[in-house]
Amino acid sequence: MPKQITLSLDAMGGDRGAEVVVPGADIALVRCPSLRLKLYGDAAIVQPLLDAHPRVAAASELIHCDVSVKMDDKPSQALRQGRWKSSMWRAIDAVKNGEADAAVSAGNTGALMAMAKFCLRTLDGVERPAIAAIWPTLRGESIVLDCGATIGADAQQLVDFAILGGAMARAVIGVDVPSVGLLNVGVEEVKGIEEIRAAGRLLRESRLPSFRYHGFVEGDDVGAGTVDVVVTEGFAGNIALKTAEGTAKQVASFLRSAIGRSWRTRIGYLLAKPAFDALREKLDPRKSNGGVFLGLNGLVIKSHGGTDAEGFASAVELGFDMVRNDLLSKIGQDMAAYRLGEEQAPVAHAVSEPAVEAP
Amino acid sequence: MPKQITLSLDAMGGDRGAEVVVPGADIALVRCPSLRLKLYGDAAIVQPLLDAHPRVAAASELIHCDVSVKMDDKPSQALRQGRWKSSMWRAIDAVKNGEADAAVSAGNTGALMAMAKFCLRTLDGVERPAIAAIWPTLRGESIVLDCGATIGADAQQLVDFAILGGAMARAVIGVDVPSVGLLNVGVEEVKGIEEIRAAGRLLRESRLPSFRYHGFVEGDDVGAGTVDVVVTEGFAGNIALKTAEGTAKQVASFLRSAIGRSWRTRIGYLLAKPAFDALREKLDPRKSNGGVFLGLNGLVIKSHGGTDAEGFASAVELGFDMVRNDLLSKIGQDMAAYRLGEEQAPVAHAVSEPAVEAP
């Protein structure tokens, strides 16, 4: 019998809160009927929605919480006011005390990360958690991290991200030995920021069996799917993710207005509609909804705050998949293998090479 | 009579060198018949091409150069071997000594920037040059800088980029008072890297008449055209530019494969072809080919190394436009106005605010 999987949901998170969370859970339960849920939220709001969604009611337990974190709360404020008692905190805490296998929230990213770090703590040997996104590419899907958990990263932190992302690629996109690239402004070894070049040297020397280090990749390699895992620090990762989302929207909008110009193009559109529908499905941001917090002693998935029930369902199913595929133990094994390799053959500390700069 | 405009072209730059440069110049001369050219390159290669393109021959002077910079030369190597004598250097030097109004090269970016800095020097009061790209948006075109001249930038350098980009927006995209935004990972004033927040405070306080400071923008604002000028440092700018190029290609490729799936969608495509042609034209990277080096005592345009004659013609025409619209004197005026404002009401040095971080 497969293991029973339980997810804890912050029922109050997101722009529309429980109104999206409960119907989203309903959709997820159709596709993952064995899933069990713990819903944290204001019973006065959530219970009527459960009455209207009997499938969710049957699969879940509702735990009343007086407090909810607001979408514009600052992380420090959310922690001060919402620790121990908010729906967000309690959903995370359920993971910590073993009542749930992963937590899902569409609430404010900064608050969720602050609470997740405070409650779950980072894994032994990992300094910083990362937010990993699943990025649709020409070859399928890639993992991109960090997409904004923190800004800046040193070489060792980038190496940690490579290990975390490699484990996630094995667990979620089903590659045996994922390829890992470091996002940079050129593919030559002398290019870019010193931290990235040093991380490249460490990865090249580490020869971990769990992934294959590809080298540097550039911005256009992400969508091309050149590697399974793209490693970057949170500032550039966030800019890349949002720029790609914006560009996809822009191209779709150009196409719409070009099609609307004449009767001929509109009739052509109707005939080619199955193709446009396939494209829309392929680019649907709801399908790849869900940023995964990696590097913590527990799994937390951040759903987009503005998503609808379908999008929230994707985030729930992503959590389900990661638990089913044992992401946490894969991460644990890979981290242990890396640390062991370090102890046995200590890696010489990266020597600074002069950056190529005009005189 | 309008001023005679002369551009100097590095005839040997780019993946295919003179084979693209001379036919590209030919296309540009059809659209800008008053243009005059100085072509720097190996006469044995360039002369036969001029013989085949009489329009270019009639409008240009060929200056023989023995040396050409290779596409994979390191900047320092290019400077050592190509200074004073390479086609790239001499095209830039023609701008310095007043024989040309701007230089255009499809050669190696690092070498071109190194030579341009060495030969032309940065403008008084500007520490670092930037590469500005013209980015097609939903609202028309925006200027994005720095797209990779240097990595990292402090608050004052970001302010310089804002002034340079504002002048370019007035000269090239024809906005009277361009709006300027700082690229960041959130729009709230407390978000992001300290340098960016400090630049935001400086720009808010400077109240320059030449542009309007909008605030922070995110990755998806670039394609939306939220502001006329997007200011960022060269690492994030390069990642954003290449990610957007990659995403546009990816969407086009998804669309092609979706259309090829059935006879119905293929017939629909044929009917809607004018719309697809319009889209292709809109997204044609050759139309927006040409990175502009800003902040130097002279104008240099970098054409994409892999472009064709049509793309190289766009870079030449961009140079023509910038000279015709007096970009350099607009930059000079705006810089002078900013320095004057600084002297009259010295801006208090940005006080560091604590970054919002989880405890």
TrEMBL record, chains A, B:
Protein biosynthesis listed as a keyword: no
Catalytic activity: a fatty acyl-[ACP] + phosphate = an acyl phosphate + holo-[ACP]
Family of this protein: Belongs to the PlsX family.
Subcellular location(s) per record: Cytoplasm
Name by which UniProt lists this protein: Phosphate acyltransferase
Major place of residence: cytoplasm
Any Pfam family: FA_synthesis
Entry GO MF terms: phosphate:acyl-[acyl carrier protein] acyltransferase activity
Pathway it works in: Lipid metabolism; phospholipid metabolism
Source organism per UniProt: Pseudoxanthobacter soli DSM 19599
Domain of life: Bacteria
